[in-house]
From TrEMBL:
Its main location: cytoplasm. Pathway: Carbohydrate metabolism; galactose metabolism. InterPro entries: Galactokinase, Galactokinase_bac, Galactokinase_CS, GalKase_N, GHMP_kinase_C_dom, GHMP_kinase_C_sf, GHMP_kinase_N_dom, GHMP_knse_ATP-bd_CS. This is Galactokinase. Mg(2+) binds at residues 127, 159. The gene is galK. The active site is at residue 171. Substrate binds at residues 34-37, 221. HAMAP family: Galactokinase. Residues 10-57 form the Galactokinase N-terminal domain. The lineage of its organism: Bacteria, Pseudomonadati, Bacteroidota, Sphingobacteriia, Sphingobacteriales. Residues 283-346 form the GHMP kinase C-terminal domain.
Length: 385
Protein backbone atom coordinates (compact mmCIF):
# COMPACT_ATOMS: atom_id res chain seq x y z
CA UNK A 1 0.00 0.00 0.00
CA UNK A 2 1.44 3.31 -1.07
CA UNK A 3 0.46 6.31 1.05
CA UNK A 4 -1.67 8.97 -0.58
CA UNK A 5 0.55 11.73 0.87
CA UNK A 6 3.62 10.17 -0.70
CA UNK A 7 2.04 10.32 -4.18
CA UNK A 8 0.79 13.89 -3.73
CA UNK A 9 4.12 15.11 -2.36
CA UNK A 10 6.00 13.65 -5.32
CA UNK A 11 3.54 15.20 -7.77
CA UNK A 12 3.95 18.58 -6.09
CA UNK A 13 7.73 18.29 -6.18
CA UNK A 14 7.56 17.61 -9.94
CA UNK A 15 4.88 20.04 -11.03
CA UNK A 16 4.90 22.74 -8.31
CA UNK A 17 1.21 22.36 -7.34
CA UNK A 18 -0.88 19.76 -5.54
CA UNK A 19 -2.60 17.18 -7.79
CA UNK A 20 -6.30 17.69 -8.43
CA UNK A 21 -6.85 14.00 -7.67
CA UNK A 22 -5.21 10.63 -7.17
CA UNK A 23 -6.83 7.56 -8.71
CA UNK A 24 -6.03 3.96 -7.96
CA UNK A 25 -6.57 0.76 -9.95
CA UNK A 26 -5.55 -2.67 -8.66
CA UNK A 27 -3.81 -5.70 -10.13
CA UNK A 28 -5.76 -8.94 -10.42
CA UNK A 29 -5.75 -12.65 -9.80
CA UNK A 30 -7.89 -15.17 -11.63
CA UNK A 31 -9.20 -18.32 -9.95
CA UNK A 32 -9.83 -20.20 -13.20
CA UNK A 33 -10.72 -19.49 -16.85
CA UNK A 34 -7.50 -18.67 -18.67
CA UNK A 35 -7.32 -17.64 -22.35
CA UNK A 36 -11.10 -17.85 -22.46
CA UNK A 37 -11.81 -14.10 -22.47
CA UNK A 38 -10.87 -13.44 -26.10
CA UNK A 39 -12.89 -16.52 -27.05
CA UNK A 40 -16.10 -15.05 -25.62
CA UNK A 41 -15.93 -17.44 -22.68
CA UNK A 42 -15.99 -17.01 -18.90
CA UNK A 43 -13.40 -15.80 -16.40
CA UNK A 44 -13.30 -15.63 -12.59
CA UNK A 45 -10.92 -12.84 -11.58
CA UNK A 46 -10.78 -10.35 -8.75
CA UNK A 47 -8.68 -7.37 -7.73
CA UNK A 48 -5.85 -7.62 -5.21
CA UNK A 49 -4.50 -5.23 -2.61
CA UNK A 50 -1.69 -4.09 -4.88
CA UNK A 51 -2.34 -1.22 -7.21
CA UNK A 52 -1.21 1.51 -9.54
CA UNK A 53 -1.68 5.10 -8.35
CA UNK A 54 -2.00 8.03 -10.71
CA UNK A 55 -1.87 11.66 -9.55
CA UNK A 56 -3.33 14.12 -12.03
CA UNK A 57 -3.84 17.84 -12.57
CA UNK A 58 -4.92 20.01 -15.48
CA UNK A 59 -2.49 22.25 -17.34
CA UNK A 60 -3.24 25.53 -19.07
CA UNK A 61 -1.94 24.29 -22.41
CA UNK A 62 -2.35 21.18 -24.54
CA UNK A 63 0.76 19.36 -23.34
CA UNK A 64 0.86 16.05 -21.52
CA UNK A 65 3.63 15.70 -18.96
CA UNK A 66 4.23 12.24 -17.50
CA UNK A 67 6.56 10.91 -14.81
CA UNK A 68 6.92 7.22 -13.88
CA UNK A 69 8.42 6.49 -10.48
CA UNK A 70 9.45 2.94 -11.41
CA UNK A 71 11.62 4.16 -14.26
CA UNK A 72 12.53 7.52 -12.71
CA UNK A 73 11.77 8.93 -16.12
CA UNK A 74 9.62 11.68 -17.62
CA UNK A 75 7.90 11.95 -20.99
CA UNK A 76 6.21 14.89 -22.73
CA UNK A 77 4.05 15.21 -25.79
CA UNK A 78 1.42 17.58 -27.13
CA UNK A 79 -2.12 16.21 -27.10
CA UNK A 80 -2.38 16.55 -30.87
CA UNK A 81 0.84 14.53 -31.43
CA UNK A 82 -0.01 11.51 -29.28
CA UNK A 83 1.26 8.32 -30.94
CA UNK A 84 2.96 5.06 -29.85
CA UNK A 85 6.50 5.52 -28.57
CA UNK A 86 9.36 3.04 -28.44
CA UNK A 87 10.02 4.13 -24.86
CA UNK A 88 7.63 1.48 -23.56
CA UNK A 89 5.89 2.59 -20.37
CA UNK A 90 4.22 5.82 -21.70
CA UNK A 91 2.27 3.71 -24.22
CA UNK A 92 -0.13 2.41 -21.58
CA UNK A 93 -1.07 6.00 -20.73
CA UNK A 94 -0.94 7.46 -24.24
CA UNK A 95 -3.03 4.56 -25.57
CA UNK A 96 -5.79 5.59 -23.18
CA UNK A 97 -5.50 9.26 -24.18
CA UNK A 98 -5.71 8.21 -27.81
CA UNK A 99 -8.88 6.20 -27.13
CA UNK A 100 -10.48 9.19 -25.40
CA UNK A 101 -9.60 11.40 -28.38
CA UNK A 102 -10.96 8.84 -30.87
CA UNK A 103 -14.22 8.67 -28.97
CA UNK A 104 -14.56 12.45 -29.12
CA UNK A 105 -14.05 13.22 -25.41
CA UNK A 106 -12.87 16.76 -24.73
CA UNK A 107 -9.66 16.79 -22.76
CA UNK A 108 -6.87 19.36 -22.48
CA UNK A 109 -3.26 19.16 -21.30
CA UNK A 110 -2.46 17.51 -17.97
CA UNK A 111 0.35 16.49 -15.64
CA UNK A 112 0.53 12.92 -14.44
CA UNK A 113 2.66 11.11 -11.88
CA UNK A 114 2.47 7.33 -11.64
CA UNK A 115 3.61 4.90 -8.97
CA UNK A 116 2.47 1.51 -7.74
CA UNK A 117 3.25 -1.66 -5.84
CA UNK A 118 2.19 -4.38 -8.31
CA UNK A 119 5.26 -6.47 -9.11
CA UNK A 120 5.94 -5.97 -12.83
CA UNK A 121 6.11 -9.11 -15.00
CA UNK A 122 4.42 -11.22 -12.32
CA UNK A 123 1.26 -11.80 -14.36
CA UNK A 124 -0.77 -9.58 -12.03
CA UNK A 125 -1.77 -7.16 -14.79
CA UNK A 126 0.23 -4.15 -13.84
CA UNK A 127 -0.18 -2.81 -17.38
CA UNK A 128 -3.99 -3.08 -17.25
CA UNK A 129 -3.86 -1.31 -13.87
CA UNK A 130 -1.89 1.56 -15.45
CA UNK A 131 -4.47 1.86 -18.25
CA UNK A 132 -7.39 1.73 -15.85
CA UNK A 133 -5.95 4.13 -13.26
CA UNK A 134 -5.28 6.54 -16.14
CA UNK A 135 -8.74 6.12 -17.69
CA UNK A 136 -10.50 6.33 -14.34
CA UNK A 137 -8.48 9.37 -13.30
CA UNK A 138 -8.90 11.29 -16.57
CA UNK A 139 -12.62 10.55 -16.51
CA UNK A 140 -12.84 12.28 -13.12
CA UNK A 141 -10.43 15.10 -13.97
CA UNK A 142 -12.32 16.16 -17.09
CA UNK A 143 -15.83 15.13 -15.93
CA UNK A 144 -16.26 12.84 -18.92
CA UNK A 145 -19.01 10.72 -17.42
CA UNK A 146 -17.71 7.43 -18.78
CA UNK A 147 -19.16 4.30 -17.15
CA UNK A 148 -16.89 1.68 -15.59
CA UNK A 149 -17.35 -0.98 -18.28
CA UNK A 150 -16.36 1.55 -20.95
CA UNK A 151 -13.28 2.52 -18.95
CA UNK A 152 -12.27 -1.17 -19.00
CA UNK A 153 -12.87 -1.34 -22.77
CA UNK A 154 -10.81 1.79 -23.32
CA UNK A 155 -7.95 0.16 -21.38
CA UNK A 156 -8.22 -3.01 -23.45
CA UNK A 157 -8.07 -1.09 -26.72
CA UNK A 158 -5.14 0.95 -25.45
CA UNK A 159 -3.31 -2.35 -24.96
CA UNK A 160 -4.23 -3.52 -28.49
CA UNK A 161 -3.24 -0.34 -30.24
CA UNK A 162 -0.32 1.03 -28.21
CA UNK A 163 1.20 -2.09 -26.63
CA UNK A 164 0.49 -4.48 -29.51
CA UNK A 165 -1.06 -7.24 -27.38
CA UNK A 166 -4.49 -8.37 -28.55
CA UNK A 167 -5.62 -9.10 -25.01
CA UNK A 168 -9.11 -9.99 -23.88
CA UNK A 169 -11.12 -7.88 -21.44
CA UNK A 170 -10.46 -9.82 -18.22
CA UNK A 171 -7.63 -7.79 -16.72
CA UNK A 172 -9.12 -4.34 -17.29
CA UNK A 173 -12.58 -5.48 -16.23
CA UNK A 174 -11.23 -6.90 -12.97
CA UNK A 175 -9.16 -3.81 -12.32
CA UNK A 176 -12.13 -1.46 -12.70
CA UNK A 177 -15.10 -3.50 -11.46
CA UNK A 178 -13.97 -5.93 -8.75
CA UNK A 179 -15.52 -6.12 -5.31
CA UNK A 180 -13.64 -7.03 -2.13
CA UNK A 181 -14.15 -10.63 -0.89
CA UNK A 182 -15.78 -11.60 -4.18
CA UNK A 183 -14.69 -12.85 -7.57
CA UNK A 184 -16.27 -11.54 -10.76
CA UNK A 185 -17.96 -14.21 -12.84
CA UNK A 186 -17.73 -12.47 -16.17
CA UNK A 187 -19.29 -13.61 -19.40
CA UNK A 188 -16.90 -12.16 -21.95
CA UNK A 189 -19.45 -12.46 -24.76
CA UNK A 190 -21.87 -9.82 -23.55
CA UNK A 191 -19.96 -8.58 -20.50
CA UNK A 192 -22.75 -9.56 -18.14
CA UNK A 193 -21.34 -10.40 -14.73
CA UNK A 194 -22.11 -11.35 -11.17
CA UNK A 195 -20.14 -11.22 -7.95
CA UNK A 196 -19.49 -14.62 -6.36
CA UNK A 197 -18.46 -14.57 -2.67
CA UNK A 198 -14.93 -15.91 -2.29
CA UNK A 199 -15.31 -18.12 0.76
CA UNK A 200 -12.27 -20.28 1.25
CA UNK A 201 -12.85 -21.35 4.87
CA UNK A 202 -9.57 -22.65 6.30
CA UNK A 203 -7.74 -21.89 3.06
CA UNK A 204 -6.19 -18.81 1.53
CA UNK A 205 -4.64 -17.66 -1.72
CA UNK A 206 -0.88 -17.62 -1.97
CA UNK A 207 0.89 -16.56 -5.15
CA UNK A 208 4.32 -17.91 -5.95
CA UNK A 209 6.30 -15.64 -8.22
CA UNK A 210 8.70 -17.48 -10.53
CA UNK A 211 10.54 -14.18 -11.07
CA UNK A 212 10.83 -14.95 -14.76
CA UNK A 213 9.09 -13.48 -17.77
CA UNK A 214 10.11 -15.21 -20.97
CA UNK A 215 10.39 -12.86 -23.89
CA UNK A 216 8.05 -14.65 -26.28
CA UNK A 217 5.04 -13.83 -24.09
CA UNK A 218 3.40 -11.19 -26.33
CA UNK A 219 4.03 -12.86 -29.67
CA UNK A 220 2.91 -16.28 -28.38
CA UNK A 221 -0.22 -14.68 -26.94
CA UNK A 222 -1.21 -13.29 -30.33
CA UNK A 223 -0.34 -16.66 -31.94
CA UNK A 224 -2.70 -18.50 -29.58
CA UNK A 225 -5.45 -16.09 -30.45
CA UNK A 226 -4.83 -16.77 -34.10
CA UNK A 227 -5.04 -20.57 -33.61
CA UNK A 228 -8.39 -20.13 -31.89
CA UNK A 229 -9.68 -17.95 -34.74
CA UNK A 230 -8.60 -20.61 -37.23
CA UNK A 231 -10.48 -23.29 -35.31
CA UNK A 232 -13.62 -21.13 -35.35
CA UNK A 233 -13.26 -20.43 -39.07
CA UNK A 234 -13.06 -24.16 -39.84
CA UNK A 235 -16.11 -24.99 -37.74
CA UNK A 236 -18.00 -22.06 -39.26
CA UNK A 237 -17.69 -23.57 -42.73
CA UNK A 238 -20.08 -26.31 -41.64
CA UNK A 239 -21.88 -24.54 -38.81
CA UNK A 240 -22.32 -20.91 -39.98
CA UNK A 241 -24.10 -19.95 -36.76
CA UNK A 242 -20.83 -20.37 -34.82
CA UNK A 243 -19.07 -17.08 -33.99
CA UNK A 244 -16.52 -18.00 -31.35
CA UNK A 245 -15.18 -20.99 -29.41
CA UNK A 246 -17.95 -20.28 -26.94
CA UNK A 247 -20.40 -21.70 -29.50
CA UNK A 248 -18.22 -24.71 -30.32
CA UNK A 249 -18.42 -28.22 -28.83
CA UNK A 250 -15.73 -30.89 -28.71
CA UNK A 251 -17.88 -32.93 -31.12
CA UNK A 252 -17.74 -30.12 -33.69
CA UNK A 253 -13.97 -29.89 -33.30
CA UNK A 254 -13.66 -33.68 -33.63
CA UNK A 255 -15.78 -33.64 -36.72
CA UNK A 256 -14.16 -30.76 -38.55
CA UNK A 257 -10.96 -29.33 -37.16
CA UNK A 258 -9.10 -32.40 -35.96
CA UNK A 259 -8.37 -33.93 -39.36
CA UNK A 260 -7.37 -30.59 -40.89
CA UNK A 261 -5.38 -28.56 -38.40
CA UNK A 262 -3.97 -30.25 -35.32
CA UNK A 263 -2.71 -27.06 -33.68
CA UNK A 264 -6.07 -25.28 -33.94
CA UNK A 265 -7.77 -28.46 -32.75
CA UNK A 266 -5.70 -28.77 -29.59
CA UNK A 267 -5.91 -25.06 -28.78
CA UNK A 268 -9.64 -24.93 -29.48
CA UNK A 269 -10.29 -28.03 -27.38
CA UNK A 270 -8.40 -26.50 -24.47
CA UNK A 271 -10.60 -23.39 -24.54
CA UNK A 272 -13.85 -25.37 -24.74
CA UNK A 273 -12.73 -27.52 -21.80
CA UNK A 274 -11.45 -24.55 -19.80
CA UNK A 275 -14.94 -23.03 -19.93
CA UNK A 276 -16.32 -26.35 -18.66
CA UNK A 277 -13.77 -26.42 -15.84
CA UNK A 278 -14.77 -22.90 -14.83
CA UNK A 279 -18.43 -23.90 -14.72
CA UNK A 280 -17.56 -26.89 -12.52
CA UNK A 281 -15.41 -24.73 -10.25
CA UNK A 282 -18.30 -22.26 -9.85
CA UNK A 283 -20.73 -25.04 -8.98
CA UNK A 284 -18.22 -26.35 -6.46
CA UNK A 285 -17.83 -22.88 -4.92
CA UNK A 286 -21.60 -22.53 -4.66
CA UNK A 287 -21.81 -25.67 -2.56
CA UNK A 288 -18.69 -24.78 -0.54
CA UNK A 289 -16.62 -27.57 -2.08
CA UNK A 290 -13.27 -25.85 -2.43
CA UNK A 291 -11.52 -29.22 -2.74
CA UNK A 292 -13.25 -29.69 -6.10
CA UNK A 293 -12.49 -26.10 -7.09
CA UNK A 294 -8.82 -26.88 -6.38
CA UNK A 295 -8.92 -30.05 -8.48
CA UNK A 296 -10.25 -28.05 -11.41
CA UNK A 297 -7.35 -25.62 -10.99
CA UNK A 298 -4.81 -28.46 -11.17
CA UNK A 299 -6.53 -29.73 -14.32
CA UNK A 300 -6.49 -26.25 -15.82
CA UNK A 301 -2.73 -26.14 -15.35
CA UNK A 302 -2.32 -29.46 -17.15
CA UNK A 303 -4.21 -28.03 -20.11
CA UNK A 304 -2.39 -24.71 -20.09
CA UNK A 305 0.95 -26.51 -20.02
CA UNK A 306 0.45 -29.51 -22.32
CA UNK A 307 -2.27 -28.36 -24.71
CA UNK A 308 -2.33 -24.60 -24.84
CA UNK A 309 1.45 -24.51 -24.31
CA UNK A 310 1.66 -21.22 -22.46
CA UNK A 311 3.44 -22.48 -19.36
CA UNK A 312 7.19 -22.80 -18.85
CA UNK A 313 9.54 -25.04 -16.86
CA UNK A 314 9.53 -22.75 -13.85
CA UNK A 315 5.73 -22.62 -13.59
CA UNK A 316 5.42 -26.38 -14.13
CA UNK A 317 8.01 -26.98 -11.42
CA UNK A 318 6.06 -24.90 -8.90
CA UNK A 319 2.73 -26.56 -9.66
CA UNK A 320 4.22 -30.09 -9.58
CA UNK A 321 5.86 -29.41 -6.24
CA UNK A 322 2.81 -27.71 -4.73
CA UNK A 323 0.78 -30.81 -5.68
CA UNK A 324 2.83 -32.92 -3.26
CA UNK A 325 1.36 -31.17 -0.23
CA UNK A 326 -2.11 -32.15 1.04
CA UNK A 327 -2.37 -28.59 2.40
CA UNK A 328 -2.51 -27.30 -1.20
CA UNK A 329 -5.95 -27.84 -2.74
CA UNK A 330 -5.18 -26.37 -6.14
CA UNK A 331 -2.41 -24.62 -8.06
CA UNK A 332 -1.92 -23.40 -11.57
CA UNK A 333 -0.17 -20.81 -13.67
CA UNK A 334 -2.11 -17.58 -13.96
CA UNK A 335 -2.58 -15.00 -16.70
CA UNK A 336 -1.03 -15.01 -20.14
CA UNK A 337 1.77 -17.42 -19.16
CA UNK A 338 5.50 -17.86 -19.91
CA UNK A 339 6.38 -16.75 -16.40
CA UNK A 340 4.83 -14.70 -13.63
CA UNK A 341 3.00 -16.32 -10.73
CA UNK A 342 1.21 -19.50 -9.85
CA UNK A 343 -1.98 -19.16 -7.84
CA UNK A 344 -2.27 -21.65 -4.98
CA UNK A 345 -5.14 -22.47 -2.63
CA UNK A 346 -3.29 -23.22 0.58
CA UNK A 347 -4.30 -24.16 4.13
CA UNK A 348 -4.18 -20.99 6.25
CA UNK A 349 -0.81 -20.61 7.92
CA UNK A 350 0.90 -23.14 5.64
CA UNK A 351 1.98 -20.62 2.97
CA UNK A 352 5.39 -19.81 4.40
CA UNK A 353 6.14 -23.49 4.99
CA UNK A 354 5.23 -24.20 1.38
CA UNK A 355 7.59 -21.51 0.18
CA UNK A 356 10.38 -22.67 2.51
CA UNK A 357 9.98 -26.25 1.25
CA UNK A 358 10.01 -25.42 -2.46
CA UNK A 359 12.49 -22.53 -2.53
CA UNK A 360 15.79 -24.44 -2.16
CA UNK A 361 14.94 -26.89 -4.96
CA UNK A 362 13.67 -24.04 -7.15
CA UNK A 363 16.89 -22.12 -6.58
CA UNK A 364 18.96 -25.22 -7.35
CA UNK A 365 17.06 -26.00 -10.55
CA UNK A 366 16.78 -22.49 -12.04
CA UNK A 367 19.15 -20.34 -10.00
CA UNK A 368 16.22 -18.05 -9.22
CA UNK A 369 14.59 -16.82 -6.04
CA UNK A 370 11.02 -17.84 -5.35
CA UNK A 371 8.93 -14.98 -3.96
CA UNK A 372 5.64 -15.57 -2.17
CA UNK A 373 2.94 -12.93 -2.50
CA UNK A 374 0.19 -13.10 0.11
CA UNK A 375 -2.74 -11.24 -1.39
CA UNK A 376 -6.11 -10.04 -0.20
CA UNK A 377 -8.97 -9.22 -2.52
CA UNK A 378 -9.90 -5.58 -3.06
CA UNK A 379 -12.33 -3.24 -4.80
CA UNK A 380 -11.82 -2.02 -8.35
CA UNK A 381 -10.77 1.51 -9.40
CA UNK A 382 -11.41 4.33 -6.97
CA UNK A 383 -10.33 7.85 -6.10
CA UNK A 384 -8.02 8.05 -3.13
CA UNK A 385 -7.98 11.85 -3.13
C1 LIG B 1 -3.53 -11.85 -20.23
C2 LIG B 1 -4.57 -11.06 -21.02
F1 LIG B 1 -4.36 -9.72 -20.88
C3 LIG B 1 -5.99 -11.41 -20.61
O1 LIG B 1 -6.90 -10.76 -21.46
C4 LIG B 1 -6.20 -12.93 -20.64
O2 LIG B 1 -6.36 -13.39 -21.96
C5 LIG B 1 -5.07 -13.66 -19.93
O3 LIG B 1 -3.80 -13.24 -20.38
C6 LIG B 1 -5.17 -15.14 -20.11
O4 LIG B 1 -6.33 -15.62 -19.53
O5 LIG B 1 -3.55 -11.50 -18.89
Amino acid sequence: MIERDQISAKYEELYGVEPALVSKSPGRINIIGEHTDYNEGFVLPTAIDKAVYVALGKRNDTEIHLFAEDFNESFQVDLKDVSPTDKGWPNYILGVVNQLKERGYKISGFNLYIDGDIPVGAGLSSSAAVECATGYGLNELFDLNIDRVSIAKIGQLAEHTYAGVKCGIMDQFASVLSKENHVVRLDCRDLSYSYVPLELGDYEIVLLNTNVKHSLASSAYNDRRHSCEKAVALVKEIYPEVNSLRDVTIEMLDEIVQPIDNDSYVKGKFVVEENERLAKACEAMDRGDIQEMGRQMFRAHEGLSKEYEVSCEELDFLVENAKKFPEVLGARMMGGGFGGCTINIVKKGFGQQLVDSISPAYKKEFNLELTPIFVKTDNGSELVY
